[in-house]
């Protein structure tokens, strides 16, 4: 049961002492974040990983986040993901080989253009390395607009991967909504590279299966139930949802907005359900609601990090066995680090 498991986790942590730090993404369930030394979004956690001294970084999150932690931490540090099944479907929508092929087509169609690739943090290390090798960088939802500005200072077009919704919402934020084209890698017949390459912003056709499910109707329903309700959504949501919301912001912005709300205010949250539940617990004075009832918007990749697996990896470390180590290949690591460093600099 939970009490016994908590006891076992605490015993293992006491044994391991400063050798271990646990990072918990905001979308992890309560039984994980309660044991985390740091809770935050992917950007905050990448900074915590960079500053961690511990020999072992246990990542409560998904594979691409653990890879980023491995890239950022020292070579002597080991990153452990409690479940190897925790893979973000959106990151899997932009495979490096697929991107190589698309890049060849698009750059052939626009030989005189200087196209800068930007990948969202939610991507695998090989794609981050590819972006660095072509003069590009990584961004998160909190700095995507700055990454676009960085790219347009250096080139004349952007290829943004893998999240088309974040890309489109960022283009709107910068007043560049008329300059967008989409690249659907699964439809080789249905696109014309020459036409796509005429646009300044080319969006890879990937999306988050959690945020993509929010609809304007969910916002209408919340407002019908309570005309004073405020709605905040993550920029991985569809354009029309972001437009209908009162505020769109990264995970960190959502947390800050609720933390700074006046007592009694109502905020409906359009993001992964676990974050909404944490906000309800952390800020009982604010009326925090899930935008779409209680049942949906659960990330099945994040959910793979079961607290029993956390117990297992910790107890194995006590027994001097390293399980589920995430290690990025050295050549990829070096280049991906360049792409991440460019982000940390902006
Ligand atoms: P952030 O942590 O960057 O807000 O990303 C949201 C997300 O979907 C993480 O998987
Ligand atoms: Fe991937 Fe979306 Fe889940 Fe984040 S919430 S891990 S982007 S599927």
Summarize the topology.
Elements: H1 2-16, E1 20-25, H2 30-33, E2 38-40, H3 42-51, E3 56-60, H4 63-72, E4 78-80, H5 96-109, E5 115-120, H6 125-133, E6 137-139, H7 144-154, E7 157-161, H8 164-173, E8 180-183, H9 193-196, E9 201-204, H10 216-225, E10 230-233, H11 239-244, E11 247-248, H12 251-259, E12 266-270, H13 273-282, E13 287-290, H14 307-318, H15 330-345
Parallel strand pairs: 1-2, 1-3, 3-4, 5-6, 5-7, 7-9, 8-9, 10-11, 10-12, 12-13
Helix pairs in contact: 1-14, 3-4, 4-15, 6-15
Top-tier CATH class of the largest domain: Alpha Beta
Determine the CATH superfamily of the largest domain: NadA-like
Query: Which structural class best describes the helix and strand composition?
Result: alpha/beta
Q: What is the approximate shape?
A: globular
Mean pLDDT across all amino acids: 95
Strand content: 15-25%
Bound molecules: 1,3-dihydroxyacetonephosphate, iron/sulfur cluster
Report Rg: 21 Å
**Shape-level CATH architecture of the largest domain:** 3-Layer(aba) Sandwich
Secondary structure: number of strands: 13
Strand order of the largest sheet: 6-5-7-9-8
Number of helices, where a helix is a run of at least 4 consecutive DSSP H or I residues: 15
Uncertain residue ranges = none
* Fraction of helical residues: 40-55%
Spell out the helices and strands N to C.
Answer: HEHEHEHEHEHEHEHEHEHEHEHEHEHH
Counted up, domains total: 3
Spatial gap, N to C terminus:
45 Å
Task: Tell me about the largest β-sheet.
Answer: 5 strands, parallel
CATH topology of the largest domain: Rossmann fold
